[in-house]
Amino acid sequence: MADTATTASAAAASAANTSTDAPPFQLGKPRFQQTSFYGRLRHFLDIIDPRTLFVTERRLREAVQLLEDYKHGTLHPGVTNEQLWSAQKIKQAILHPDTNEKIFMPFRMSGYIPFGTPIVVGLLLPNQTLASTVFWQWLNQSHNACVNYANRNATKPSPASKFIQGYLGAVISAVSIAVGLNVLVQKANKFTPATRLLVQRFVPFPAVGPAGDGADTSGPPHAHPGAPPDRHVHAREIETSQLEPEIARATSSRTVVYNKGL
After folding, report:
1. Start-end of H helices in the chain
2. What's the N-to-C CA distance of the chain in angstroms?
3. CA 48 to CA 170: how far, in whole Å?
4. Which of 8, 62, 218, 260 is a Cys-bridge partner for 148, taking CB atoms 3.0 to 4.6 Å apart?
5. Average pLDDT taken over every residue of the chain
6. Among 163, 164, 123, which residue's Cα sits nearest to residue 140?
7. How far is it, in rounded angstroms, from Cα 168 to Cα 166?
């Protein structure tokens, strides 16, 4: 253990000597300071960066090898902190931290914007029929469930029946609330057509909320570098001394675990 720490320190010193544009590299740590809002914002923007979706297999292997070289203190001369941070970003965006297997592209954190945005647009389409309401709610909950499962804590596997039960509960809940509220709005005679249309635009929000809370049945959260809204699958540990004073005063623990969702 001491040898690993020594070689990693030596590698970090070597990288620091060749780069001043990026902060000193720390394996497994966030690049940006998590004690400020701006640092956390930049961290989350880094996580959902869709450019990592286009990383080639060769570039991924190079990133993984670079991090292995850093870990064992065998970095080649001239490797910069920026290169190390970039390698870590690529690995964390593509590979599952437990299984070390590639996460299917639509279910990665970096795929949240390109694959999630069309679903959000579909949920907010005006004048939806019963069929379209059911379809978009089903698609949204299916995507949520797949993201949760793909980023699950694989060190503590859960039975498939638990996942299926949570998925079915989320779909039924979302569809029932959305359809029920749409029917109530349509039967509200006191609403003008414009008001009815406006109210219907907000129906997806109460439908998605309760269902999303029930969809995460993929097991305990894993210490992964972050998650977008409604993906309650990532957590990290932080020392209490690094928290805001008002939060630190609320606990006597030396460290706390917090959700890394946006």
Report:
1. 2-17, 37-47, 57-71, 81-94, 112-123, 130-150, 160-187, 193-201, 204-215, 245-248
2. 34
3. 24
4. 218
5. 79
6. 123
7. 6
